[in-house]
Design a protein that fits this description.
58 residues; alpha+beta; 4-stranded mixed β-sheet; 1 helix
């Protein structure tokens, strides 16, 4: 089950990314979102994310 990370970018917008076990990014949001809920919806639709965890921007 793909898990994705939620984070705020440098503009303060929500983004998601999906990483494999090695840490390589497999998919990511193409845009920033004002709300966490909008971001999660996009992650489920575009990134096949089944669950989310919050993380820091790297």
């Amino acid at each position: 089950m793909p898990k994705c990370q939620l984070y705020k970018d440098v503009k303060g917008e929500w983004r998601w990314r999906r990483q494999n076990k090695k840490g390589d990014i497999e998919a990511f949001s193409k845009q920033g979102f004002e709300s966490e809920e909008e971001c999660k919806k996009n992650g489920k639709e575009e990134g096949n994310c089944t669950s989310f965890r919050k993380g820091a921007f790297h």
